[in-house]
Amino acid sequence: MKKMIKNYRIRKIMLPVLMITGLILGAASVYAAILYNKLNQTLDHIAAPEAATTSNLNGESRVPVTQATNPIEKPLTFLLTAIDEREGNEGSLNTDVMMLFRIDPKTHQGTVVSIPRDLEIEADKSGLDGSHKANYFYAYYYNKNRDTALYETKRLFSDVYQVPIDYMAVINFDGFRKMIDQLGGMTVDVDMDMRYQDESDGTDIHLNKGTQQLNGKQVLDFIRYRKSNLGTAESSDLERNQREQLVLNQLLDKLTTLNGLTAWGGVLDIIGSTIKTDIPADEIRTLTKSYRDLKPSTVRYIQLKGEWESPYLVVKKQDLEEAFDALRGEHSGEQIDRQKRTD
Predict the structure, then answer these.
(1) 329 vs 343: CA distance, rounded Å
(2) What is the pairing mode between strands 312-315 and 306-309?
(3) Do 190 and 101 form a contact (C-beta atoms < 8 A)?
(4) What is the distance between the alpha carbons of residues 193 and 197, in angstroms, rounded to a whole number?
(5) To 5 degrees, how large is the angle CA 41–CA 245–CA 209?
(6) How many CB atoms lie within 10 A of CB 56?
(7) d(Cα 254, Cα 55) in Å, to the nearest integer?
(8) Three-state secondary structure readout of 216-281
(9) Residue 187 lies in a domain
(10) Residue 95 to residue 84: CA distance in whole angstroms
(11) Number of structural domains, the chain?
(12) Alpha carbon separation from 190 to 221, 237, 239 (Å, rounded)
């Protein structure tokens, strides 16, 4: 009798536990399905309208990643840019951040070249009237035809620097701010006091030197700071590029260690509304599935140092050649200023 009573009590206790567990698992399954659908919607929204082959520098068609024999063996090069579309910014689409990022899955190495926004691109290389700064061209092509702006910008930089660029992505700065906040902010060693205000576009940078926890708006201020109108020292393009690389490191770390369906749901919402790329949706899915093989174990950052000759930053030809050789996989990198990051 005692045994029967004991078993009854156990069943009485276990029944609600099992019911609650079942409800939790059921809810998790439903949420996982919702997240999966959201992922597909996000990919479809940010991707190129339809899969199509593109041409390399020699005019030969490039086989899309999804059609390659082994997609994770081919080095891939991306042009990553960021623009400011805030109200009051006079509609400027000039790219404030430009990075060429090469991933080699065979060697598990990555190479990042930050292109200074004030780098001169001469008329004979761009085919346009007169010389222009590097950050000019996306806005120029977008205003001509927004549907082909990514392709034309990518083609231009491929031709100018003789680096075959597979894909391009553009992120809105406001989306970057939201993503940092979604990920809980970022601990940053601010290298200098930063003060700048501009009522016309709402810019209000106020950061003190030292290691501190920054929110999304403050991280954006940190990487964008150039000049001051409130008594602090001004910053060079080189220093800005170093900050961009520092923040990119942390952002990659946060995203690669992100856990939880809820956390990813928020990130996907932000990505879907603020990023555009010319990668076809099916290829993004293939790259995502191959992420473990594509993820570099080390990333080498290349600094393009130059001298200011108004209105351009002038970089030595040898430094440019070495940097872009590295993006082609043709340079050992021994003479290049670099920083390695081990994941």
Answers:
(1) 21
(2) antiparallel
(3) no
(4) 14
(5) 120
(6) 12
(7) 34
(8) HHHHHHHHHCCCCCCCCCCCCHHHHHHHHHHHHHHHHHHHHCCCCHHHHHHHHHHHHHHEEECCEH
(9) no
(10) 8
(11) 1
(12) 11, 16, 11
For residues 53 and 32, what is the distance between their CA atoms, to the nearest angstrom? 33
Query: CATH number of the domain that 126 lies in?
Result: 3.40.630.190
Q: What's the confidence (pLDDT) of residue 53? A: 43
d(CA 68, CA 75): 12
Is the pLDDT at 158 greater than 60, yes or no?
Answer: yes
Token pair for 68: 């390659």
The single residue listed with the structure tokens 């061209």 is 137
Type of residue at 134: A
Q: What are the beta bridge partners of residue 204?
A: 197
- Does 290 map to a domain? yes
- Quick one: 3 exposed, middle or buried, by C-beta within 10 A (0-12, 13-18, 19+)? exposed
Taking only the tens place, the pLDDT of each residue in 264-273 is 778 888 888 8
Q: Could you tell me the residue range of the domain that residue 140 belongs to?
A: 47-179+230-342
Asked if residue 199 is part of any domain, the answer here is no
Find out whether 135 and 117 touch, Cβ atoms under 8 Å: yes
Query: Alpha-carbon distance 302 to 121, whole Å?
Result: 19
209 or 50: which leads in pLDDT: 209
Cβ burial of 65 (10 Å; 0-12, 13-18, 19+) is buried
**Torsion angle defined by CA atoms of residues 132, 138, 142 and 148, in that order, rounded to the nearest 10 degrees:** 120
The verdict on residue 139 lying in a domain is yes
